[in-house]
Specification:
With 725 residues, the protein is α/β, with parallel strands linked by helices.
Length: 725
């Protein structure tokens, strides 16, 4: 969060401004500019915000005999000999030198640096800086930085004194020392231009430096405490900005949007519950109370319903939709995949069989010019359809609702943050000019990927949260086994045994076919695996495939046969990750499990263990992890069935930036703040943001002008703050 000063260009040292392209800095030619651009550095503003990822302690210059093996050390002396080892030319050789002072000798080695034979020679006095290691009982530096000095009596420079040296994110052909040098060259010019959008009294109350000083301490810390203080201030900036955007958005939703206040009564409640084939659990009852309390108000419900795989979220969502129908209005449920939309349509149709509720399914498979689509759209527009179930096809301009009251968005983490607002009806219901209320439906967004507390305050910070924290009775726990590829024969022999007992199984592979990927022997695919299972392991059983390229009619035909028990093994891609519910399926094999994300593995595993028959459900992960992260994921999924614990582990492994995908949500990634480590700082930012918005929701006070401008620039589009004002 940086603002540029309005100082005239002539008052800025060397004419360098935050907006100046890096190409105007000495030493940055076209090639180096391209390398900097690959790091996101195109202007001096970008360079200033390119912060060190860590620091190395550089010890003060000392004698060779006193060099420490800890940290980075500096020494000076005279070169007594040099030689090149290995082939010469094209930088292939290893250059060696021996440095001597009054106390001892130091071996120096540079790899792939035979060109140094033209630069370093016996008799030169140089200073070297680098990591010291013992080699054959003698101290040695490998690839040290060096500088020639005119005489041994020359005093050490400031760079030779003890300091914390910043280590920047860099590339193979643009090292951290180069970036450090560029920052050092421009920092004195840039810092006076940094304007702090936060009041000085707020910084003092939080014991934080002003923004310019924070950047100085980040790039040139005098000691560890300064580096820590800089990180805390810059992390707070990021979190405060995000929390202000969320607070303003929430205020706007509550004060400017108007939803239909739905009538609720015990009679309506009884009619809705009569459609359910089972009693709601205590956890489901609690969430229903949250929802009915929300929808009876004219302020739009904005509620997040989270619950583990198989916890019964769909029936709670149906309750909300039927509240709309009971008030002679419409409801809609949007899903990320056609398969999930189809599954919701079938399951809801079964629960509403015999009722007067009119359902429609709208997905991309209905051709834009088809007669069926035209009839569906007409029914929605004329109010002849009560509940519409579909994919993002619901967001197209051709879809017009007669009276939309409740929207359910399933698997919210698959959608961007603005897609909720796409259902908002455009008519204003007030008449007071700029204060006119904007009509909006109630929103219930659901996820089976439990959200850690820290993320619920960020990505979903404008939502109220309800949690179904208990599974329905009768669900059997899933046993998860992690095996290597060498156990494949044993796995599929076991699968065949389970099929012989009348059970069914899923087999998940990462690709539809091997074309464009590794060979089939390296990466298993749907088509080849169907043939392998049918010919070798599952003779006498029906094996079929399902994936995203199949036509909707074909996909539904395969699923119907699997539900009916006519297909025994379903070989699939991750298209079955959500929405598939076949109680007789008790076994899942996931091939190349190391290729799947942790939340994805948990979702896939949740397709089994859904029956009340009491049979043991087993998920087998066939994997050959080659990275520490993949090993962590697999150990976590094998160690627990608790989706909330898995979500916390997933956040720790991937960090917030990748947990849901900031690109998908449209939110700028946090560059400094780390969650969950900075949870206390996040809470502080949330408290401050809410206080500002309560006092000045439109941010019209002059003291907030700069902060508002930065906020709209960074989050205006992704959080809809341009509409907010």
């Amino acid at each position: 969060m940086i603002a540029m000063s309005e100082a005239p260009a002539g008052q800025v040292e060397q004419g360098l401004r935050l907006s100046t392209p890096v190409t105007e800095v000495d030493g940055v030619g076209p090639a180096r500019a391209r390398r900097l651009a690959s790091l996101g550095i195109r202007t001096l503003n970008d360079l200033l915000r390119h912060l060190p990822m860590r620091y190395q302690r550089e010890l003060a210059e000392g004698s060779i005999a006193d060099l420490s093996m800890e940290g980075i050390a500096s020494a000076r002396g005279t070169i007594v000999n040099t030689r090149v080892m290995g082939g010469m030319g094209r930088g292939k050789g290893r250059f060696q030198a021996t440095l001597k002072d009054h106390s001892g000798t130091l071996a120096l080695v540079w790899f792939n640096a035979d060109f140094l034979r033209h630069k370093l020679h016996a008799g030169m006095v140089i200073r070297v800086t680098g990591k010291v290691k013992a080699f054959n009982s003698y101290p040695q530096m490998v690839n040290p930085r060096w500088e020639a000095i005119e005489t041994e009596a020359q005093a050490p420079t400031a760079a030779a004194q003890e300091r914390l040296r910043p280590v920047y994110p860099a590339t193979d052909d643009l090292g951290s020392p180069v970036i450090e040098g560029l920052v050092a060259a421009v920092l004195p010019s840039l810092l006076p231009q940094v304007v702090d959008p936060l009041p000085a009294e707020l910084c003092r109350s939080h014991n934080m430096p002003v923004l310019a000083e924070a950047y100085r301490m980040a790039h040139r810390p005098g000691h560890e405490d300064e580096a820590s203080a800089a990180r805390r201030r810059l992390a707070f900036n990021e979190l405060l900005l995000l929390q202000m955007g969320i607070a303003i958005k929430r205020y706007f939703n509550e004060s400017r949007l108007k939803a239909p206040a739905l009538r609720w009564s015990e009679a309506i409640d009884g009619h809705i519950r009569a459609r359910f084939p089972f009693e709601l659990t205590e956890a489901q009852q609690r969430v229903v109370r949250d929802i009915t309390g929300d929808v009876q108000r004219s302020a739009p419900m904005n509620r997040l319903l989270q619950g583990d795989v198989g916890s019964g979220k769909t029936v709670v969502a149906l309750y909300a939709l039927l509240m709309a129908v009971a008030n002679r209005m419409q409801g809609a449920i949007m899903t990320p995949t056609e398969l999930l939309a189809e599954q919701h349509y079938l399951s809801i149709s079964r629960m509403l069989e015999g009722s007067n509720v009119r359902l429609a399914l709208l997905t991309g498979s209905l051709g834009s010019q088809s007669a069926g689509r035209a009839r569906t759209l007409e029914g929605i527009a004329e109010g002849k359809t009560d509940i519409v179930i579909g994919t993002q096809a619901l967001l197209t301009e051709s879809v017009k609702f007669a009276d939309l009251a409740v929207v359910v968005i399933d698997e919210q983490h698959r959608f961007g943050v603005l897609q909720r607002a796409a259902f908002r009806q455009g008519n204003a219901t007030g008449t007071s000019g700029g204060d006119a209320a904007i009509a909006s439906p109630h929103y219930l967004v659901m996820t089976a990927t439990p959200i850690p507390r820290t993320l619920s305050l960020t990505v979903f910070g404008d939502l109220d949260v309800s949690t179904i924290d208990k599974l329905p009775p009768g669900r059997t726990p899933i046993t998860t086994r992690l095996v290597g590829p060498e156990k494949t024969d044993d796995v599929y022999r076991y699968l065949a045994q389970r099929l012989g007992r009348g059970e069914q199984a899923y087999v998940v592979v990462p690709t539809i076919d091997a074309a464009g990927h590794e060979s089939a022997t390296q990466l298993k695919s749907v088509h080849e695996h169907v043939a392998l299972l049918a010919d070798k392991y599952c003779r006498g059983f029906k094996v079929e495939a399902i994936h995203g390229r199949l036509k909707a009619q074909t996909r539904e035909s395969v699923m119907e046969k699997f539900r009916a028990g006519k297909v025994h093994v379903l070989v699939a891609t991750t298209v079955i990750e959500v929405g598939v519910d076949v109680p007789n399926a008790t076994l899942m094999v996931i091939e190349h499990a190391e290729r799947f994300g942790l939340a994805q593995l948990h979702q896939l595993r949740g397709r089994i263990g859904r029956g009340t028959h009491g049979r043991k459900s087993v998920c087998v992960l066939v994997a050959e992890p080659t990275t520490d992260e993949a090993t962590q994921r697999l150990q976590a999924i094998a160690g627990t069935n608790d989706g909330f614990k898995i979500a916390e582990v997933d956040l720790q492994i991937r960090g917030m930036g990748d947990f849901f995908g900031t690109r998908q949500h449209g939110l700028p990634p946090l560059r400094v703040a780390q969650l969950p480590e900075d949870l206390d700082l996040l809470k502080l930012a949330r408290r401050d943001a809410e206080a500002v918005v309560r006092a000045d929701p439109g941010m019209i006070d002059p003291s907030h002008t700069l902060l508002k401008r930065i906020l709209v620039q960074q989050y205006g589009k992704t959080l809809g703050l341009i509409d907010v004002g």
